[in-house]
Amino acid sequence: MQKIIVLNPKGGSGKTTVAINLASHFAVQGLRPTLMDMDAQGSSTRWLSKRGMEHAAIHGIASYERNSRVTRSFALRIPQECQRVIVDTPAALDPQRMPDVTRDAHAIVVPVLPSDIDIHAAAKCITDLLLVAKIPRHEQRIGVIANRVKKNTVMYRALMRFLQTLDIPILTTLRDSQNYVRAAESGIGIFEMKPYQVKEDLEQWLPLLGWLSQKSPAEAQPIENRAAVDVPLPTPVPAPLTSIAPATPAPAPAELQGVGSAVPAVNLVEPAKPQTKPHSPILASLPAWFTRQS
Ligand SMILES: Nc1ncnc2c1ncn2[C@@H]1O[C@H](COP(=O)(O)OP(=O)(O)O)[C@@H](O)[C@H]1O
Ligand SMILES: [Mg+2]
Question: What are the helix (H) ranges across 230-286?
Fold first, then answer.
């Protein structure tokens, strides 16, 4: 069983959006995911409640519900057949809770928005993951998603430059897309919409899914009776899209390398150097179903 934590104490960064779409993807793959909602706002739980019986099963655990009729131990039980657990975490998560929340996680995914406030919050979040939760950087369990990105904007360039200073893999960039909003309204993910409607969005998920498949423990094998087979597993990509090399030579304190100094280094005015186009190798490896138009 693989445990994936979606975390960023900044509200509105896209945690729930990423969590429910991961759950949707794994459900379609027949991996019987469990979606654990730690947020008292209950957004993931609400999404799950809209999900019709015709869709592949996702087990929901509202782990914020302390006064539920069912006992907490029962509510927190993960079904035996579950092969992926996705944890949607709350905003304003206390850093002191991070060691607990991230314990046993195979992957920690941090969505970040391209705004000045969000970039600073992300720097703090990554610092806390490294120093408070004590997740060794070399284990490469932490990855960042640049979310709601409008390319060729000053903030996008600032975000990408900041992320590159972190020495943390940038897993993908997700564009601002109404497909996420439409899917969420119906209790589904973009993986359950018509491929031609969401082609551009699906394409952006491939590197993230490839990275996650590399982080999955050896025992995680797809179960035999898959609920749906029309969306194949992504081809694992060998490495994250964007270079993870720090922009400057590593300074002395190993765990703070690149983090504390990252934000001041971001220049929001000066035009950035052209970015290397990250998605082109992925386009070439897209499966045939992906390019089908109807
Ligand atoms: N890539 C995206 N494109 C369009 N809307 C998005 C995207 N990511 C998130 N949103 C929207 O932004 C809002 C906040 O996202 P959400 O996932 O709830 O953030 P969080 O869980 O971090 O608070 C939601 O209305 C969601 O639909
Ligand atoms: Mg949320």
Answer: 262-265, 280-284
Is residue 89 lining ligand 1, measured as CB closer than 6 Å? no
Return the ligand number nearest the Cα of 90: 2
Average pLDDT by stretches of 10, the chain with 294 residues: 96 98 98 96 97 96 68 68 96 93 95 91 93 93 94 84 84 96 98 97 97 79 39 40 34 40 34 36 32 33
What pTM, to 2 d.p., does this model score? 0.77
Domain 2-223: CATH architecture, name and number where available: 3-Layer(aba) Sandwich (3.40)
What is the position in ligand 1's atom list of the atom closest to the CA of 178?
Answer: 4
- Short-list 96, 185, 84, CA closest to 134: 96
User: What is the separation, in whole angstroms, between the first and last Cα of the chain?
Assistant: 34
Tokens (6 digits) for 30: 């027949």
